[in-house]
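Hey Z.,

So I finally got round to the pyridoxal-5'-phosphate thing we talked about over coffee. Here's the setup:
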Amino acid sequence: MATNFDEIIDRRQSDSIKWRKYGDALPMWVADMDFLAPEPIRAALRERVEHGVFGYASEPPELRDALRAWLQRRFDWTVAPEAFVIVPGVVTAFNVACRAFCAAGDGVLIQAPVYPPMRTAQANFGLTRDEMELTRGNDGRYEVDYDLMAATITERTKLFLLCSPHNPTGRVWTKDELARMAEISLRRGLVICSDEIHGDLVYSPHRHRPMASLDGEIARRTVTIMAPSKTFNVPGLGFSFAVIEDRDLRRQYKAAAADIVPHVGPLGYAGALAAYTECDEWLAECIEYLRGNRDFVAQFVRERLPGVSMGLPEATYLAWLDFNDADLPDDPQRFFLQRARVAMNECDPFGPGSCGFGRLNFGCPRSILTEALERMERALTTKNQSTQGPPSL
Ligand SMILES: Cc1ncc(COP(=O)(O)O)c(C=O)c1O
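And the result:
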């Protein structure tokens, strides 16, 4: 590998939310990785910083071709240049979709457990949350109950916020699953807003298919949101984009964003352009490293964490651990924070079906991951003893 993903970068002394929020605990929570961004991105940023003037930026003229080429070579998806709307973040982008396609009192369809800001976006606009639970199989793999999906949609439901691939379950929806969800949505007159921020970090043989790439009819009713943030570990640069092929939907979307959504800054543009044109090799290596981490976590959980189980993530670097049979004296997040000094995400904000689960981010050097899992193992095996104080670092 040209990149050394085992290298430990000291982020404790940086401005990292991930490394600051829980003090000296090992942070295995928020979805950013502990790897250096690819060198071409860092070079583009250095060059832009050297320029020294940071006024409002306009879109680089090469950007749309770079995005189109990316979508074509990664997903075999042909998109017209005018379909792109640049937005400074994915959470902002799906909030704009709520504003654009719903009126007060309308409903937004959500599949729980799910990335918490997708569950709360509706409340920002006086909308109702029409929430269904995904079905968890014995192997920890989640599926969609289509009858339940159809039954959850009401007369007032106008928008389906889809997470694809799905955070936190790690599912890469198959073509058939996407087609069935689209069929129900279109039949009931919904707009689909598909958050595909994790779509580049997929483990073969799984394959990410943008919802809108399935066929023209679906494309006409779909807003797709993508970003280099997770893919190249640059979430702090604040760049994302929506693909909206239908002219009327795009007009409504842009109108909803006007005046309230800030512009992407010069560093966001510089980083995104380098990401989508010069970093394919880095990404291939990163996925291989993450695959090793994923398999390591799965094996560790199976062999050394009694009562804990997980489905094998098909995408991204988040493991959704089920602690319900581990007989913990407390909520998993609190238990491991206190007894292992390992910080996972709290489960409750992920919604129904998340009680007793914890989300563990394995996008880090293997040595940090090993340390976190070994601490968790020790905490589990000594859980019935009184606390001796946190392990030393
Ligand atoms: C599904 C999903 N959407 C959006 C985001 C955040 O996107 P942004 O930082 O661009 O708002 C995340 C981050 O974890 C995510 O998992």
